[in-house]
């Protein structure tokens, strides 16, 4: 029998997995089954029907699953799936298009965006922004901590990327979703000032922004009739 690598073993149905986590898991299963089959030295028909647990056992499945959990791969997939499944809707913050025209400058600040306020507060929130788009950034923040007052800019309304650090953020700007998205729920749970469904001009790491979290959250019907985007985002001019 000619030895083949896992890359040479085609999926049973002749199709390629659309998402990375199933592809990783299935590839590991195929590779291990091929390795075990080669070790039997027996014809395929004698193994597949009568000795199938020699090819792949429950313990093998548990080991592959644990390897994925230990690597954090499932977290990486969950945090970035929107970028791959809906690239026109979700864009990485550090590559975001200019979807909001520059506003007027007054009182040392310039309007650079709008969004939907999740939690109405008595005062606006001001702080430096950090553009969060990778798992490595989140891991660094978990290890080193987040500077006080930081406002995170993210694109995925699912909240998976932000969930481990949301309590440490002073505010969140999210480019997707609605106030009823998973991230909106987390924001209310942890009482973190958050704007969803934002349209922003390009923000640079460290820009000082002000979020109008004093605005009223959208009503239940707002997204059906387009009555959204009333909370404003300003960037403070340097030196102010």
Structural shape:
elongated
Number of strands: 8
| Largest pleated sheet | 7 strands, mixed, barrel
- Radius of gyration, in Å, reads 24 Å
The proportion of residues in beta strands is 15-25%
Order of strands across the widest beta sheet?
Answer: 2-6-5-4-3-7-8
How much is the average pLDDT?
A: 82
The number of helices is: 8
Q: Which class best fits the helix and strand makeup?
A: alpha/beta
Describe what this molecule looks like in 3D.
This protein is an alpha/beta fold and 240 residues long. It has eight helices and eight strands. It has helices spanning 20-40, 44-48, 52-55, 58-71, 73-85, 135-144, 182-190, 222-225; strands at 105-106, 109-117, 125-131, 151-154, 171-174, 194-200, 208-211, 231-236. A hairpin with a 2-residue loop joins β1 (105-106) and β2. It starts with 19 loop residues before the first helix and ends with a strand. Mean pLDDT is 82; it is low at 1-7 and 93-98.
Describe the SSE topology.
Elements: H1 20-40, H2 44-48, H3 52-55, H4 58-71, H5 73-85, E1 105-106, E2 109-117, E3 125-131, H6 135-144, E4 151-154, E5 171-174, H7 182-190, E6 194-200, E7 208-211, H8 222-225, E8 231-236
Parallel strand pairs: 3-4, 4-5, 5-6
Antiparallel strand pairs: 1-2, 2-6, 2-8, 3-7, 7-8
């Amino acid at each position: 029998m000619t030895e083949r690598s896992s890359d040479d073993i085609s999926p049973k149905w002749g199709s390629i997995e659309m998402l990375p986590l199933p592809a990783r898991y299935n590839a590991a299963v195929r590779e291990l089954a091929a390795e075990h089959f080669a070790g039997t030295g027996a014809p395929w028909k004698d193994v597949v029907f009568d000795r199938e647990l020699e090819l792949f056992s429950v313990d093998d499945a548990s080991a592959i699953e644990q390897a994925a959990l230990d690597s954090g791969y499932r977290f990486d997939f969950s945090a970035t799936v929107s970028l791959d499944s809906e690239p026109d809707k979700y864009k990485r913050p550090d590559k975001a298009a200019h979807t909001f025209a520059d506003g007027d400058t007054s009182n040392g600040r310039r309007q650079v965006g709008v969004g939907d306020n999740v939690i109405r507060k008595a005062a606006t929130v001001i702080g430096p922004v950090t553009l969060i788009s990778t798992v490595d950034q989140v891991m660094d923040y978990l290890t080193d901590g987040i500077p006080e007052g930081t406002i995170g800019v993210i694109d995925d309304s699912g909240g998976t990327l932000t969930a481990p650090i949301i309590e440490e953020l002073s505010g969140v700007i999210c480019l997707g979703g609605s106030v009823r998205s998973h991230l909106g729920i987390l924001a209310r749970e942890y009482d973190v000032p958050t704007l969803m469904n934002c349209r922003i001009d390009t923000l640079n790491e460290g820009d000082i922004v002000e979020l109008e979290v004093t605005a009223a959250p959208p009503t239940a019907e707002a997204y059906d009739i387009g009555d959204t985007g009333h909370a404003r985002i300003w960037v403070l001019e340097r030196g102010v």
